[in-house]
Description:
This protein folds into two domains: 2-124, Aminopeptidase (3-Layer(aba) Sandwich), CATH 3.40.630.30; 160-277, 3-Layer(aba) Sandwich (Aminopeptidase). Helix content is 33%, strand content 27%. It has nine helices and 14 strands. The protein is elongated, with a radius of gyration of 21 Å. It starts with a strand and ends with a strand.
Amino acid sequence: xxxxxxxxxxxxxxxxxxxxxxxxxxxxxxxxxxxxxxxxxxxxxxxxxxxxxxxxxxxxxxxxxxxxxxxxxxxxxxxxxxxxxxxxxxxxxxxxxxxxxxxxxxxxxxxxxxxxxxxxxxxxxxxxxxxxxxxxxxxxxxxxxxxxxxxxxxxxxxxxxxxxxxxxxxxxxxxxxxxxxxxxxxxxxxxxxxxxxxxxxxxxxxxxxxxxxxxxxxxxxxxxxxxxxxxxxxxxxxxxxxxxxxxxxxxxxxxxxxxxxxxxxxxxxxxxxxxxxxxxxxxxxxxxxxxxxxxxxxxxxxxxxxxxxxxxx
Length: 313
């Protein structure tokens, strides 16, 4: 039968998750953080399929109760951030039944669009991985989801990392022009948060605030400034305390093409290697975007691809 989450389901959900998605296992701590204490969590949106007391399917539907920024509750939008079925029971209509329940959940809340799975802040993956979960993508397509765009995850081994001479020369040129590249200090924290909120997106501003609040050292956050104006930043170790996770990272639109992003990226990678890390990685960028090209030139390689998908209700 289809039912909703009840207290006490947690261990069975995590065990089912790890059987169904061995490429992306989860811990109870991460499930608690990303699901149970998410401000937007609604037990009616955590849809389960159960048979004879055995949990066989899971779908997580989200609508926004708390604005990510300002007062915007994104009233037209909903998200499915994860779904899966016990490997022994696939192709038995379980996902179909769960998605019917999910669509009922969204329609009851007047949603017009459903995304898989670009939900901030507590997404698990940017979208469906068509290589590891081809059956999942095919199911979404049959339900009417269409692919909007396809970000990539990238990794860079740091064992052989060195700063190229052209980057060293570029930094010196920009310093002579009055630019300063340095670790974040308290006097610029509010600027960096506002810079992310206005130049990029509120989720990045949230990531900076939460990282500092959790005790991420300020020397893991680099800024570029001209006089007292922050025009770029990058950081690492800001998500879930994972030190090797790079980002977020961005430069003021008006300064694109000046190489500030390149300088910040290499300064951050240098600090990561100096701290004993062997790898830098992140989950989400456009492969053909300016940032994507910069990452390729810095030695990053694509490790996964995702499809962000949308259903119009």
